[in-house]
Amino acid sequence: MYDVNFTEQEMKITAHLEDYEQILFENGVHEIVVPYAEIEQATLSICSRVWGMSLIMVGHKIYNFDLQIRTRDWKKIHLEFMAFYEWKEVLERMKRNNVNIIDQCGIYKEFSSKEDFNKNFHASMEDRFEQLARQYDLDDPRVGYNEKLQSMWKEG
Fold first, then answer.
1. Separation of alpha carbons 40 and 69, rounded Å
2. What span, in angstroms and rounded, lies between the C-alpha atoms of 42 and 94?
3. Which residues have C-beta within 8 Å of that of residue 49, sequence separation ≥ 6?
4. pLDDT at 150
5. Residue 134's domain spans which residues?
6. Is the dihedral of CA 87, 92, 98, 103 positive or negative?
7. Is 69 contained in some domain?
8. Is the dihedral of CA 70, 142, 32, 7 positive or negative?
9. Which of 12, 20, 54, 73 is the most buried (most CB within 10 A)?
10. Is residue 16 part of a domain?
């Protein structure tokens, strides 16, 4: 997988597996640093994943955040991470550094406090994620590292 470290001025993406180095970066590169000053736009959206799936039973659906970043030279970076309210601070930090932030599904407008997010986010997604997925072409569910996601990394 990969780790992302967000500081006040930049983000650092580190790949931990050779497969991810080959998919995410050029061969042999395992880390990139992207200063916020080089980011034009960041779009926050959602995907679903199913855990515990087998041929006999359907697993439990979870909802992750997707962050699609477009740099000023039109490179694209796509990151997926667990949905936590605290990501709002990362987006606000980027915004303070003149990054255009798009909350595609209105997540932080709908859930304006950490308590509201923690209490209601999952139930809300259970009720309306299929509609959001159709409206915004979101993965429902995303299975593994699919071709759509890989093509997003290769653009730019």
1. 8
2. 8
3. 61, 62, 63, 64, 141, 142, 143
4. 43
5. 39-154
6. positive
7. yes
8. positive
9. 20
10. no
Most confident of 23-27, 62-66, 152-156: 62-66
Contact of 40 with 71, CB cutoff 8 Å: yes
How far apart CA 21 and CA 29 sit, in angstroms, is 6
Amino acid at 59: G
Q: How many CB atoms lie within 10 A of CB 24?
A: 22
d(CA 80, CA 86): 15
Q: How far is Cα 81 from Cα 93, in angstroms, rounded to an integer?
A: 17
Task: Find residue 146's DSSP bridge partners.
Answer: none
Rounded to whole angstroms, the Cα distance separating 14 from 137 reads: 28
Q: Has residue 7 been placed in a domain?
A: no
Q: What angle do CA 31, 65, 128 make, to 5 degrees?
A: 165
Task: Assess if residue 82 is contained within a domain.
Answer: yes
**What is the three-class DSSP state of 147?**
helix
Query: What amino acid occupies position 126?
Result: E
What is the distance between the alpha carbons of residues 75 and 97, in angstroms, rounded to a whole number? 18
Q: Which pair of tokens denotes residue 108? A: 């932080």
Q: In this predicted model, what pLDDT tens digit does every residue of 68-100 receive, in sequence order?
A: 999 988 788 888 888 999 999 999 999 999 999
Q: What tokens appear for 104 in the block?
A: 């595609």
